[in-house]
Amino acid sequence: MLSAVLLGTVLTVTTACGGDGGSDADGKKAGGKTVPDGPSQAVVAIAVKDGATEVRTSGALKVTAEKGSLTSVKVSDGKGRFVDGKISAGGASWEPSIHLASGTKYTVDAIAKDKEGRESAKHASFTTLTPQNTFAAYFTPEDGSTVGVGMPVSLNFSRGITDPAAVERAVKVTAEPAVDIKPHWFGNDRLDFRPEKYWAAGTKVTLHLNLDGVQGRPGVYGKQNKTVKFTVGRSQVSTVDAKSHTMKVERDGKVVRTIPISAGAPANPTYNGRMVISEKYEVTRMNGDTVGFGGEYDIKDVPHAMRLSTSGTFIHGNYWSGSDTFGSANASHGCVGLEDRRGGGDPSAPGAWFFKNSLIGDVVVVKNSNDKTIQPGNGLNGWNMSWAEWTKSS
Description:
Blueprint: H1 2-19, E1 28-30, E2 33-35, E3 43-46, E4 52-55, E5 63-66, E6 69-77, E7 85-87, E8 93-96, E9 105-113, E10 119-128, E11 133-135, E12 137-140, E13 146-147, E14 153-157, H2 164-169, E15 171-176, E16 181-185, E17 190-195, E18 204-210, E19 215-217, E20 220-222, E21 225-232, E22 236-241, E23 246-251, E24 254-260, E25 273-276, E26 279-287, E27 298-307, E28 314-318, E29 336-339, H3 350-356, E30 363-367, H4 387-392
Parallel strand pairs: 4-10, 11-20, 13-21, 22-30, 28-29
Antiparallel strand pairs: 1-2, 3-5, 5-8, 6-9, 7-8, 9-10, 12-14, 14-17, 15-18, 16-17, 18-21, 19-20, 22-23, 23-24, 25-30, 26-27, 27-28
């Protein structure tokens, strides 16, 4: 009997020892695995020296682990904002997925485990460089604006960009409802974004500029960190037929007005193609000297002018030609003229009506002119490129 009692006691003790989740005499347990005592064999290394200054914003920061795997890497600035990054497969290294901001102090806290599960940690802090030379992006459209369906997002840089990929990674354009949006470079100082087709009416578009710290060319860094939002208004596309001297204004799929026009004279025909209104002026001066026509004209009070190209193509009110010109003859130096009154004070005049009913970003299509199709980079006129051409450079 005594042997049976002792055996039962031993079994009870054995069961109790095997069922807890704490420590035993041989070491610690983590997740059901015994972790032996002693220091971790994992060695965490941070490529940037603790306390370093003038650190590059790209390519300098990297965290690695030897004889172990990284389990956590946290990099944050002084405002507590974390830097996105990814631990490589297997945990050998971590790198940021975006560039760092310039002139900013960062802290790094990294943890790795060795094959026995023992942890090793390392902390460091550093400050990124303060650039001596910077570039800026001048954007259109304006924040909070309502624009036409043809309006691209257009960025003009103050310095020519020699690392376009770095700049593209730092710029994001999104839309609601969602649509595929792609970038296209015009030269090295302009970057436009658009969808394959015109925006849908009512679309809300957001531009995220994260250029602070981006090296756009050797030794020249961006400084902007900005969000711009705009809304696409109703759909309006107006078609100018230079042969019939008319313009049909189509809004949300319906023709709302047909207007007599006068396009470019045979010696100076109007460009064909799809053009976007980029600027609007109640009144402006048009001087032939500024667009290569010498002293052929200098009109100081052109009413209701809307720019269609960088090179000087406008659709505008015209008070100096006779009423019989509109709808019957092409007599301009390449612009599209609409009958108007001097001073623009008659709201019933075609020029005044079209100006009032147009948004920056509206599309004006010119056809049946004796000129070539306008170049896509001459104004906001990238719609004259096929989608395949547009996406080729991105």
